[in-house]
Amino acid sequence: MDYYSRMKTFGEVLESADGLSLEEQENLISILQHRLREQRRAELAKAVQAARREFQEGRCRPAMPSDIMKKILA
């Protein structure tokens, strides 16, 4: 049996979670929240690195927030 055939659907995961004790459900929530925070941090770090690279390569210039808002609202 390969990895994809063992994957559970979202509904199956929810049903499995319902079978956990309240303490286990709270632990599961805590673990998932921690994983989400870590994933968001990693995405943000990649975005910051890309922005710094673009700036160093001269593909963008510093701008005042008011100037950026003017362009957005124009």
What can you tell me about this protein's structure?
The chain has four helices and no strands. It has 74 residues and is mostly helical. It has one domain.
Annotation keywords:
74 residues; mainly alpha; 4 helices; elongated
Which oligomeric state applies?
A: single chain
What's the helix count?
A: 4
Rg measurement, Å: 21 Å
By helix and strand content, what is the structural category? Answer: mainly alpha
Distance between the termini: 56 Å
Q: How many structural domains?
A: 1
Give the strand tally: 0
Mean pLDDT: 91
Residue runs with pLDDT of under 50 for 5 or more positions: none
Q: What portion of the residues fall into strands of 2 or more residues?
A: under 5%
The biggest sheet amounts to: none
Outline: elongated
The SSE string, one letter per element, is HHHH
Helix content: over 70%
SSE inventory with pairings:
Blueprint: H1 3-6, H2 10-18, H3 22-56, H4 65-73
